[in-house]
Amino acid sequence: MVSSDQRRRQLAREKFERQQRRREEIRKKSRRRNAIIAAVLAVVVAAGGAAYLSVGLSDGGGKDDSAVKEAGQSPTPTQSESSVPEPAMAIAAKGTYTMSMKTSQGDIAFTMDAAKTPHTVNSFKHLADKGYFDNTKCHRLTTEGIFVLQCGDPKGDGTGGPGYTIPDENLAGLGKAGADGTVTYPAGTVAMANTGAPNSGGSQFFLVYKDSKLPPSYTPFGTMDAAGLTAVEAVAAGGVEGGAKDGAPTKAVTVKKAAVSKG
C-alpha cells in the first residue's frame, strides 16, 4: 500500500516533469524570438541605419511563474544555453575551498572539494572574485516536499545566470538512487540548481536545511558549517511570503558579500 508520504513525493515528481516540459517550451520560444530580433537588426544595419534595441533578453529566456509558485518542485532555474565560455581552470586540482557569504540573515559558509567538483568550485571562485554574488537575493524558499533555500541569481527571480554552463559533477556522491528514483540530500548540503537538462548548471545553487529527497541530478558540491545551517533554518522558520509553501522567503535574504578562499 502506498503511504501518503510516498504519494506526495510521487505527485511532486510528476509536477516537476510537467514543469520541465513547460520550461523547454519557453526556452524554444525565446530562441525563436531572439533569432527574429537578430534578423531584424541585421536588416536595419544592412539598410544603412542605426538602431538601439531595448529587449528583455534574460539568461533564462523568460520566467515561468506557475513553476515558481507550485510547492514540491525541484530547485530548478530556467537558464538558457551558454553564450560565453566556461572560465578557464584556475584552482588547485585538490584540496578544499570555502565560500563565505555575509547575508542580511547572518553569515553562511560552506566548504567545497576541488577534487570531486573542480568545474563547480572553479566557477564559484571565478564569479565570487568578480563580485557576481554581491548584493543578490536568495529568491526562493521551499517548505514542503523539498526543503531548500535557493540563491545565486543576479536577477532575483529564478531566471538569471552567468551566460555559461558547467558540467554536472559528483552525481553519485550521495549514493545510488532508490526504487523511487531519488537520493537523500542531507541537511547542510549545497548543490547546483539546473534547467532539468544534463550539464546545465550556471550560478544558481540551493542550501538544504532539512533532509530532502531528489533525483541525483543536482551536483552536490558543498557542506554548510553549523552557523550557516542555523541561519538558513531560521529563514525557513519564517516561512514563505503569503503563507505559500514555495516562493520568496518572508525573511528576505540578501547576500551582501561573497568570497571564495583556499582551505
Rg? 19 Å
Describe the global form: globular
> Helix proportion of residues, in percent?
25-40%
Low-confidence spans: 34-72
Q: What would the CATH topology be?
A: Cyclophilin
Structural class: alpha+beta
Binned strand content: 15-25%
- Tally of individual domains: 1
How would you write the strand order of the largest sheet?
Answer: 3-12-1-2-10-7-8-5-4-11
What does this structure look like?
- The protein is an alpha+beta fold and 263 residues long.
- 27% of the residues lie in helices and 21% in strands.
- It is built from four helices and twelve strands; from the N terminus they run ααββαββββββββαββ.
- The radius of gyration is 19 Å and the shape is globular.
- The N and C termini lie far apart (49 Å).
- Its EC number is 5.2.1.8.
- This is Peptidylprolyl isomerase.
Short summary:
By secondary structure, the protein is of the alpha+beta class. Helices cover 27% and strands 21% of the residues. It has helices at 4-46, 65-69, 118-129, 226-237; strands at residues 96-103, 106-113, 136-137, 140-142, 148-151, 183-185, 189-192, 205-208, 212-214, 220-224, 246-247, 254-262.
Outline the secondary-structure elements.
Blueprint lengths: L3 H43 L18 H5 L26 E8 L2 E8 L4 H12 L6 E2 L2 E3 L5 E4 L31 E3 L3 E4 L12 E4 L3 E3 L5 E5 L1 H12 L8 E2 L6 E9 L1
Antiparallel strand pairs: 1-2, 1-12, 2-10, 3-12, 4-5, 4-11, 5-8, 6-9, 7-8, 7-10
